[in-house]
Amino acid sequence: MEYDVRSAETLRWGLERRGQVGALVVLAVVLLYLLVPKAVNAHVHGAETTVEAGDHFMLDAIGDGSAKLDLSALAGWTLPPSASDDSVLVTRGDAKVSMRLVGNVRNPALAFDRLPRVLRLSDPKATWSRTGEFRGHRGLTGYRGEFTTSTRTGSLFLAGRDETALFVLVSAPSSELEDARDAAETVLDTAEINP
Hints:
The chain is α+β, with helices and mostly antiparallel strands. The chain has helices spanning about 15-45, 110-120, 175-190; strands at about 50, 55-60, 65-70, 80, 85-90, 95-105, 125-135, 140-150, 155-160, 165-170, 190-195. About 30% of the residues lie in helices and about 35% in strands. The chain is elongated and about 90 Å long.
């Protein structure tokens, strides 16, 4: 005697109807996890903003420390969307000012000398030199330097206190470099770093 194992609840493709609802719920949840974060990010982080006089930006170092940056010197520059708590990038055309707060910097001179080595990894023809020390009005001390790669030139700064340091990298076409460097140095000079 033969028995037909197909019941009335089985569809023609071999799926049971009682499993369809669960499968649709799982599919809907997966689609929500895929689509909703992208839609939220597009609306929240998708807008560039123009820096205005009086704008401030807070950075939190990985490790210890925080910084409050007065971006007034970069008024008119563009602040692209950013998802990082420890760094900020400000642009104007081809000019860029990148600032990153780092904690646990025990030897600022060594940390400053390592930064240009990273440039050499991406461009073996990169050159750099330390051009002096930096002393800010709010007690920050550190170093300044210049770099050249095959595609850009710029300035480097490192300043901080109590093992918390702000790295600033400025790159711009030669006609804009001096203005960009002066603006970045003003931001660094007025930065409030809290270990």
